[in-house]
Amino acid sequence: MNLTPVWSLDVTSGRPVVTRNTLYRHRRPFPLPAVLVILLGMAGAPALTLGQVVVADVVSTEDEREEAYATVRLAGNLGALAGPPAAAVVIATAGWSALLAAIAAVGLAGAAIAARMLPESHAAGERDGDHAAFHRLAGDRPFLLLVLSTLLGFTVYCGFETVLPVIAVSDYGVTAATWGLLLAISPAMVVLFQLRLTRATAGVPEATRLAAAMALMGLPLLALGAAASVRVIAAVIAVFVVGEMLWIPTSQAVAARLAPAPLRGTYFGVCRPPPGRRGRSRRSSRCRSNRAPGRAWCG
How many domains does the chain have? Predict the structure, then answer.
């Protein structure tokens, strides 16, 4: 047995505090899951970059890249929308072991399809050494502005995906089950409207689209200060997702255009989502309120 503290987040100050100790029973130490999580994080970071580079290499026409990125994003959100119900069915009918086996099978199937169907792509041009590549990137002012824009965008995004779930459950009285339904708004909207929106705004200048995306992602959060009902939260999420649908494919297409072909991996590695961004608050959906006002704990 192991006495483990449960940590909570003080929403008013943002400081973690220990609320109580909970007794967990462990049959025996089993570090393998922790090792697998670490390995997944190490493999996931370059994998995210590699996916963006492959799209840039395979889709050579600049006019078609943004739609290609939008299509890849649609496929990912389709999985986010259909995955949890499918997992629930597997768990209910066959148990957790079957779910783990199914996840492994899906991963292997995806690897086999990628290896068989993706064409070989090699960036044309002479490769620079690491030192020369760094200096070239540091001197690329348009790309550095894009990196700054991406950093600011993900600052707003973290407020949406990390802070909003905590305050929604702890301060606004939203139950965990209701928040789970609210989470489904994002992938559903992306599946239904991502390609339509990308095609409809193709003639709008990229700078205008990025500026509009930042406004749509940040300004709706101010509405929560006036009213914080479930309907208002749902509306905020919907408007935020519209901005997100404008922002992500556009910024990826701009990065692909600015990056020299031999340095696409380096450029996309710098201008990529921070680790854990794609979790989209699934962990936060397990938040609960505790007795202290303004605090919530996650576990």
Answer: 2
